[in-house]
Amino acid sequence: MKILAMVIILLSLTGCANTKSEFVIDGSSEESTQKSLSVIEIKLDKKERKQLIVALLAINLSDVKSGYDFLGDVIHKGKGKGKGIGFSGIGKKIDGLNYYQILELASKSPTKVSYE
Fold it and tell me: What's this model's pTM, rounded to 2 decimal places?
């Protein structure tokens, strides 16, 4: 019985350690950013997933000043030019942030994105 109680407590603590406020993004590479976002996404409900996607889009486009900037990034992605619009570009901006900090950073972005 004591073992069962210890297992339940351990599982509860493990679950708490992976909440969206405690899990931070590893933006050191494109792969680690994608993996981190996947782990957070699993913990979110449908509405929170939408909020995260919109926030990531706002953050990623925050330094785009014109359509040319955006298209230049798309055209040159993978060729060593431009900032890129993939996980490597956003990873640098959200490295070390948790879900709530990502939403806060997006709210400060000059690029406003909404969903309905």
Answer: 0.68
Q: Are 27 and 105 in contact (CB under 8 A)?
A: no
Q: What is the CA radius of gyration of the chain?
A: 17
User: Which pLDDT does position 116 carry in this prediction?
Assistant: 65
Phi-psi category of residue 59: left, alpha or beta, with phi > 0 → left and psi -120 to 50 → alpha: alpha
**The three-state (H, E, C) secondary structure of the chain, written as one string:** CHHHHHHHHHHHHHHHHCCCCCCCCCCCCHHHHHHHHHHHHHCCCHHHHHHHHHHHHHHHCCCCCCHHHHHHHHHHCCCCCCCCCCHHHHHHHHCCCCHHHHHHHHHCCCCCCCCC
Q: Which two tokens stand for residue 32?
A: 């680690």
